[in-house]
Design a protein that fits this description.
Strand content: 15-25%
Shape: elongated
Number of helices: 27
Helix content: 40-55%
Number of domains: 5
Number of strands: 24
Structural class: alpha/beta
CATH topology of the largest domain: Alpha-Beta Plaits
Low-confidence stretches: 1-12, 14-46, 722-728
CATH architecture of the largest domain: 2-Layer Sandwich
CATH superfamily of the largest domain: Reverse transcriptase/Diguanylate cyclase domain
Radius of gyration: 52 Å
Length: about 725
């Protein structure tokens, strides 16, 4: 541009008359002695230079007045034509510091020096443009400056871009100063540190200058076990040209341990070669601490502080994946629900906490002890598969439970059943090992409790029972429970006065399963409460059907277990079912065993009184077996006692048994209590009970348990055979 300006200036010396009027032209002619043709050529050349140049070209008088402007220059200044700017004061377009720079450049030009400056001035429409301007003096033959050529390059876009970049740079600098992040730029293999932000001092505890002098200084802070994966990720970023992220720990110079997350991005040239690595590092210590706290909550048992089921499974998966030898012990306290009811919930919780401490104290520090829920614990014994060693450990735990723990809590008993599975002998994954240990524990319970079994010691019978136990939780939802009914007869006429509802399990694979196979499991699991509620509802629904068919005074007997008796919802369940099916309360008879009543006599008495207030009748089942129950008859005020089948079976061949039965009947009648005899299986037993004044009889001799439809068909046959020796429904 400077060469073009110089050429234009030289030419303008010849053609100055063109821009200075007629007087100027005469001077040029006179001084230079040019003929008209040469003047025209010079003028044309000067004018062509002005119009061809893409800058804003202006000819200025020495006082700053604009003598002439190129057409493109007029357009850049947003003038309607070059003539609009002729005669204008060039300095007036500039303001502030830019005006001072323009004045200085003008003065320099007038003094004969070519000067340049950069500044902004307004166009004729008031818009600001940035210019790089060069003023070149134009002299005559006498060497005096007679005018100046001003060439201004429009650099508005470049200036705004630089301004934006400057603002961004300032913003980034401010961010780097105030944000606890480390921004960095390294060479492609991290040999040289091009830039690192001030945040490195607050995060890593070292200065940018230290990294500038020794780019690898930060690696000295990395915890040794985290260094290898960190370096591997750094190399991967460069070799695979891929974003990388890694979390690691550092030990700052002040000794503080911090967690860092670094993210790196490769920057490539036009040939896809990595030329540098840029990224950001941040302190994530607080985040890691929060995650650790959440992990603790997620994988820790709240009551005992032990690992929970999730933590146990996580560790088992790891050991199985690593193919590390270990064994699993499944520890289940025996009859814990009885202990819970005897000791109370608070004391039972303390017992579980002490059990946890005892197990932990008896094992090696690297053993994983977990509470799976309720009274179930599990132990991972690392590196051990010897049965003799495991048996010794299991027995020592049982001894500690039954001695130290029992004494400390004044409990009637504290025993456990332990099942043991060994990896990989009894399973190659956590699910198989847990199932094997669970089955072995079940075998220990079936073997009498307070013992242990290995997974390969469980018999096929135990496996079958275990399968039933596993199927029980879904049986109710799948409508697998059904009711059978057994008639309760008046001894003389054999008329059915009532029925007893007896639950059966219609197992999809095994068919009809008797109560002896699943009621104990329901009792121990507590699921008996839900199943019992279903029995009450289903029994009253059937009774409502029979009563609607004309049997208004028919009664329904329903058995209630000790576990149900302890449940606060029993009275509400009975009341709701009576209202739902519109059955008179007097037609419902709740049967409880002596043992259930004796577990907690005061609680039993309160519950029975609440039931009696509903109008429900109460029967004591299995009367006369094992407890001094006679003294409680007045307290419990039952409506009916049911003589146990063990006494009924001896009638006709044991005089003592006959005397006991007559005594129970006589005493009960004196107290206003009705008597039902269970287990009637012969004509002789039926006659003996009839002669003794027994109110009702029940047994296979009369009717076996059967579904509702068959019972209706059987009833008439029973009544018609009252004078005979055998009931047709007993076969």
């Amino acid at each position: 541009m400077h060469q073009a300006v110089s050429e234009a200036a030289a030419t303008l010396r010849v053609a100055l008359s063109m821009v200075s009027g007629v007087a100027g032209l005469a001077i040029v002619r006179r001084k230079l002695g040019l003929d008209y043709a040469r003047q025209s050529a010079a003028t044309a050349l000067a004018s062509g230079l002005l119009h061809a140049n893409r800058d804003c070209l202006k000819v200025l008088a020495t006082d700053g007045k604009i003598l002439r402007v190129s057409e493109h220059g007029a357009m850049l200044m947003e003038a309607e034509s070059p003539e609009q700017l002729s005669g204008a004061d060039w300095l007036a377009f500039w303001t502030g510091e830019d005006r001072a720079a323009a004045e200085k450049a003008l003065a320099g030009g007038v003094s004969g020096k070519s000067t340049s400056f950069t500044g902004s001035c307004a166009t004729t429409r008031g818009r600001t443009r940035w210019w790089n301007s060069t003023l070149t003096p134009v002299t005559g033959d006498d060497g005096a400056v007679s005018a100046l050529l001003c060439a201004s390059e429009d650099v508005t876009q470049q200036s705004e871009l630089l301004k934006t970049l400057r603002e961004r740079d300032e913003l980034m600098h401010e961010m780097e100063l105030h944000v606890r992040l480390v921004f960095y730029s390294y060479s492609s293999h991290f040999e040289h540190c091009h830039h690192v932000s001030a945040g490195v001092e607050s995060v890593f505890g070292i200065t940018p200058q230290e990294l500038g002098n020794r780019p690898s200084a930060w690696l000295d802070l990395v915890v040794p076990e985290d260094l290898e994966p960190l370096l591997a990720e750094m190399n991967r970023v460069a070799s695979e040209v891929a974003e990388g992220r890694v979390e690691y720990r550092i030990r700052r110079p002040d000794g503080c341990l911090r967690w860092i997350r670094s993210t790196a991005y490769p920057v490539c040239d036009g040939s896809a070669n990595v030329v540098r690595i840029v990224g950001v590092s941040e302190d994530i210590t607080l985040e890691q601490e929060r995650l650790a706290a959440l992990d603790h909550l997620a994988y820790t048992d709240g009551l005992t502080g032990l690992a929970n089921r999730g933590a146990l499974i996580r560790q088992m998966k790891t050991l199985c994946r690593q193919n590390v030898a270990f064994s699993l012990m499944f520890v289940d306290l025996d009859r814990f629900k009885v202990l819970n009811d005897t000791l109370g919930h608070t004391a039972a919780d303390r017992l579980l906490q002490d059990i946890a401490k005892v197990i932990q104290g008896a094992l090696a520090p690297d053993a994983c002890v977990a509470r799976l829920g309720g009274d179930e614990f599990a132990v991972i014994v690392r590196g051990e598969s010897d049965k003799a060693t495991l048996a010794s450990l299991a027995q020592s735990l049982l001894n500690l439970f039954s001695s130290d723990v029992r004494k400390d809590h004044a409990a009637p008993f504290v025993t456990a059943s332990i099942g043991i599975s060994i990896f990989p002998e009894h399973g190659r994954d956590h699910e198989a090992l847990l199932t094997s240990a669970d089955i072995a524990m079940y075998a220990a319970k079936k073997g009498g409790r307070n013992g242990f079994r290995f997974a390969d010691e469980a018999s096929s019978d135990v496996l079958g029972d275990f399968e039933l136990e596993c199927n029980l939780p879904t049986a109710l939802a799948s409508n697998q429970f059904v009711l059978h009914f057994q008639g309760i007869h008046e001894p003389a006429s054999l008329a059915v006065k009532g029925v007893e509802a007896l639950v059966r399990w219609n197992h999809p694979a095994r068919g009809l399963v008797g109560p002896g196979s699943f009621i104990p499991i329901l009792e121990e699991s507590g699921f008996i409460v839900e199943v019992g509620a279903w029995v009450v509802d289903a029994a009253l629904a059937q009774l409502a059907v029979w009563q609607a068919a004309g049997r208004k005074e028919l009664s329904m007997s329903v058995n209630v277990s000790a576990r149900q008796l302890r449940d606060d919802s029993l009275v509400a369940i009975v009341d709701q079912a009576l209202r739902k099916h519109r059955v008179p309360p007097r037609c419902l008879q709740i049967e409880l065993t002596e043992s259930a009543l004796m577990e907690n006599p005061s609680l039993a008495q309160a519950t029975l009184m609440a039931l009696k207030r509903l109008g429900v009748r109460i029967a004591i089942d299995d009367f006369g077996t094992g407890y001094s129950s006679l003294r409680y008859l007045a307290d419990f005020s039952p409506d009916i006692v049911k003589i146990d089948r063990s006494f009924t079976a001896r009638l006709g061949r044991d005089a003592a048994a006959a005397s006991i039965v007559r005594g129970i009947i006589q005493m009960s009648h004196e107290l206003g209590i009705k008597v039902t005899a269970e287990g009637v299986e012969t004509h002789q037993q039926l006659h003996a009970l009839r002669d003794a004044g027994c109110d009702y009889v029940q047994g296979f001799f009369l009717t076996k348990p059967m579904n509702a439809e068959n019972l209706v068909q059987c009833e008439s046959a029973v009544s018609s055979s009252a004078a005979g020796t055998t009931s047709c429904c007993s076969r």
